[in-house]
Structure prediction request, 169 residues.
Amino acid sequence: MSGRGSASSRRTIAQRLDYLIGAIHPAGRGPFTYHEIAELIRDRAGEGDPTVSHGTVQAIRTGKVTNPSVDSLRALADFFGVPTAYFLDDDVSEAVEDRIREIKESAEAAEAADELADVLQDNEVRAVAFRLGGLSARSIRGIKSIVEGFRQAEGLSEVKLPPSRRRRG
Prediction:
């Protein structure tokens, strides 16, 4: 370990598993349940591969089991697609979590780009967007307020935009 994290920043195996459960799951749904994790591990396991029960997953996540077997950690690591060392090494844990954040940010940006492309497929929307070019910031804020009022009147949800990557100076 390179010592990047202080003793107070070190996390337990339970905290690391909790992070994985919260962060890694299919889009559009919540985290896997303990039963789902155990069942999917069993379904994917080859001959001789380790498996875990839902009770073991729960006991590790809640901290009831603080020193799980290497096989349990290997099964969980394989399920979440991380190295087994993720659970034991602060540097590996930090690198894995940084990469998970990068992947999630990229996925969110791609989703936003897809949504924008879908919206711009409408010729009327595209025509309005092109006409906004060259207007002052004050005019654009006024038009935005008008559009938000119409969206609210028609019962449409508020539009949440991802943060812009362009720097305004």
